[in-house]
Design a protein that fits this description.
about 10% strand, Rossmann fold, 5 strands, 7 helices, five-stranded parallel β-sheet, alpha/beta, globular
């Protein structure tokens, strides 16, 4: 089969692949992130190249974009953003340790390790997911092709059904934005409900934990 390299054919392929996305898995990803929010856990995001950029972008959306007016905030950290730390670990150990070594410092049982890899086979991604699983974290990710080796290391894996790297990356961003929009809505709804509850009754030791400074200690 001959591949046509022009703009209309690319956009047609993108449109076709959108309709093949695994929506139940994306919904489960929303639920996984919401559970992390409710339980006060941290979501750690990581990837290489374009996926590293998406990890940073997604962390910005999750950490800032979902922040409610008064309630508690979702905890999201990109392991791709500290250049000094990444290059130090790469130089002093191996490149495939750059995410594992950061997780050694930060990851707790019950946190979420979220990997982004179009191929699903990057050694540093696989190492980080393996470590996270052993540490008792929830492992999740987005990939493409057939899921690669990371699929078996994830409790939840969203696989874009394409072998076109650019299509996969386009739809990873679309998935990230769709997840963000749902999370923002859910967190804002909860924040408004808590604010209404606080106005309706006196502050007490049993005040809802979603209001900062009012949770029982």
């Amino acid at each position: 089969m001959t591949t046509t390299f022009d703009v209309p054919s690319y956009l047609e392929e993108l449109s076709t692949t959108i309709h093949l996305l695994p929506l139940p898995a994306i919904d489960r990803l929303v639920d996984t992130f919401l559970q992390a929010y409710h339980s006060g856990r941290t979501i750690f995001l990581f990837g290489n190249g374009g996926s590293a950029s998406l990890a940073s972008h997604m962390t910005c959306d999750l950490g800032k974009g979902t922040a409610p007016a008064a309630g508690k905030r979702l905890r999201a950290v990109a392991l791709t953003d500290n250049v000094a730390l990444i290059t130090a670990w790469a130089n002093d150990t191996r490149y495939d340790r750059i995410f594992v070594e950061q997780l050694e410092n930060l990851l707790a049982a019950g946190d979420v390790a979220f990997a982004i890899s179009a191929s699903g086979n990057s050694p540093n991604i696989l190492a980080a997911l393996s470590f996270a699983r052993q540490a008792g974290a929830i492992t999740a990710g987005m990939t493409g092709f057939q899921g690669g080796q990371m699929k078996s290391l994830c409790d939840l894996c969203v696989v874009v059904p394409s072998d076109n790297m650019q299509i996969i990356e386009d739809l990873h961003l679309s998935i990230a934005h769709s997840v963000f929009r749902v999370l923002r809505h859910e967190i804002q709804e909860m924040d408004q409900a808590c604010a209404t509850m606080a106005l309706a009754r006196p502050v007490s030791a049993h005040a809802p934990s979603c209001l900062p400074g009012l949770a029982a200690h």
